[in-house]
Amino acid sequence: MSITPATLAAVNLSEALASFDDVYSPRIVTRINDYDVRIAHTRGEHVWHVHEDTDEFFLVLDGQFDVAYRDEGGQEHTVVLRQGDTFVVPRGTPHKPSSPGGSILMFEPTGTSTTGDRHEGAIPDHVDSTAGHALATLDSGVSDGHVSG
Asked: What is the DSSP letter of 128?
């Protein structure tokens, strides 16, 4: 892979989030090694799901994001996250995100499905079962990042 100024461009997360409105439909803002850095708007309930082979990292960029999870005994717990909070759901842990509204950043292996390796029940219409979408502003080469040299 050759390195070009476009591949080294900075991505402003506020501008990236402003470029789309879909909830629970992550956009890939960059990649590092075999991992995607994704951002998403959140609102409403997601679906109970499990990632068998990977942990799932969340950073709340704005608003509130709650993660319900089930411990080994099946007891449900909820972690309430606000702007600046991080939380990692360990691999194999059933969890269900929900939010009154906000935005998050996720860090996970490329190809990881938003609805896990398995999920419970029907996927709500507002939840996109995907491995992420390319960020439109990246595709068009639009960036406020400056590369000098």
From this structure: -
At 14-39, the pLDDT tens digits run: 999 999 999 999 999 999 999 999 99
Look at strands 86-89 and 118-119 and give their pairing. unpaired
Distance CA 124, CA 97 (A): 13
User: What whole-number distance in Å separates Cα of residue 25 and Cα of residue 96?
Assistant: 15
Q: What are 144's two structure tokens?
A: 């406020």
Which tens digits make up the pLDDT trace of 73-116?
999 999 999 999 999 999 999 999 999 999 999 999 999 988 88
Report the chain's terminal Cα–Cα distance, integer Å. 20
